[in-house]
Amino acid sequence: MTKRSFDLIVIGAGPAGSMCAVKAAERGNKVLIIDKNQRIGGKIPVTGNSRCNITNENISLENYVGKNRDFVRNVFALFSTSSLIEFFRESSVGLYREKDRYYPLSGKSITVVEALETKLKKNNVDFALGATVVSAEKSKSVFTVESASEIFISKALAICTGGKSYSKAFGSGGGFSLAQHFGHSLTPMNPGLTSFLIKDNIFKSLAGVSTEATLSLISGKKNIYLKSGPILFTHFGISGPVVMDCSNRLAQLELQTAEISIDFLNNAFSDFETFYREISFYPKNSILKLISRYIPNSLARVVLRNLSIDETSVVSSIKKTRARELYDFLTANRITAHLNKNFEEGQVTVGGVKTDEINPKTMESKKVKNLYFAGEVLDIAGDCGGYNLQFAFSTGYIAGNNALS
User: Fold this and answer.
1) Range(s) of the domain holding residue 378
2) CATH of the domain at 352
3) DSSP-assigned beta bridge partners for residue 373
4) pLDDT at 211
């Protein structure tokens, strides 16, 4: 079996691993990047609906979950949104802003992958693609990484393997066992940025319908997370950006089920009396026509049917007590939601390598010298909107900029 020597071996060629390899090689190190897939990029091709939402203008700690969110603050102090935007502009990737999100001008995620490939090749990074890591060991000051066909040795090792999400497609998740092998601890792991499953789903007929709403995650009698935006009805429950962000908080709490409250009127009315006065202005309108001014017609039909209110009834015929029931259903619809536990449907992993065991200024292990971690393998997960890619690129940059320094 052949043996090759390097200064740094990077396991994982996703956003974190590719950035790590680029920065380490730019500093004059001989770098090898290993990945199970035949091409670099990891999950980049599927991010942002294949448009690659690189980052977000409004990065804050509130957009992340993890046992130690201060870790995020330290990371972005070293490599921020503006730093990443400048990196890609220098790599000839034009970006445009859509609301608070940044995408490549081409509108295609492959543009980002190709830019990273160019950077890697320009800096003479070696590739071992389509290679599965069988083992990784350290003896004295040397790391030995073995694949099915080769043995590689190096002075430093970076684990950038991603999490468990989409593991069938991207071969991720192996970094967790490597981390444990080197003495690192893991926090409990659950799928994040995923859907909620609902038993006895009264909205099943609405699969594919989207609406703006405000969703609250409830623990005990407290609202512990509140967010407004689009939700999407599915055959099995609800999804969409708001639900996905909420799922990160549920996963962080290590709960399988929770009560959620949905305001389908999306804070359009401050209280019932305001709502009642509004609908009373249109006494001859059918209740269906009136409610459909605020929510999709198909959703209005389901709501009225579940309250046993005839959709052809005119507003003036609706008693105030019934109007109150309608308002309560529309603004505080309580549902028991179940976290979708299928990692193949979750976009990120909530949980991972404990960040207390990693130096956020270098990404180096506090347990093993010259061992580095970056990206989703760490116990940090972000919301929809470019937050996870930014974290992956930032931690990869820091690791590559400090390896063997």
Assistant:
1) 2-190+348-402
2) 3.50.50.60
3) 159
4) 97
Please report the pLDDT score of residue 32 as a whole number.
Answer: 98
Which residues does the chain have with pLDDT short of 50?
none
Last residue of a domain, one of 339, 361, 384: 339
Alpha-carbon Rg for the chain in angstroms:
25
Q: So what's the pLDDT on residue 219?
A: 80
Kindly report the three-state secondary structure assignment for every residue of the chain. CEEEEEEEEEECCCHHHHHHHHHHHHCCCCEEEEECCCCCCCCHHHCCCCCCCCEECCCCHHHEECCCCHHHHHHHHHCCHHHHHHHHHHCCCCEEEECCEEEECCCCCHHHHHHHHHHHHHCCCEEEECCCEEEEEEECCEEEEEECCEEEEEEEEEECCCCCCCHHHHCCCHHHHHHHHCCCCECCCEEECCCEECCCCCCHHHCCCEEEEEEEEEECCEEEEEEEEEEEECCCEEECHHHHHHHHHHHHCCCCEEEEEEECCCCCCCCHHHHHHHHHCCCCCEHHHHHCCCCCHHHHHHHHHHCCCCCCCEHHHCCHHHHHHHHHHHHCEEEEEEECCCCCCCCEEECCECHHHECCCCCEECCCCCEEECHHHECCEECCCCHHHHHHHHHHHHHHHHCCC
Total structural domains within the chain: 2
Tokens standing for 170?
């991207």
- The last residue of a domain, from among 298, 313, 339: 339
The b-or-e profile of 207-220 (16+ CB within 10 A means b, else e) is eebebbbbbbbbee
Burial class (CB in 10 A: 0-12, 13-18, 19+), 53: buried
Pairing of strands 257-263, 142-147: unpaired
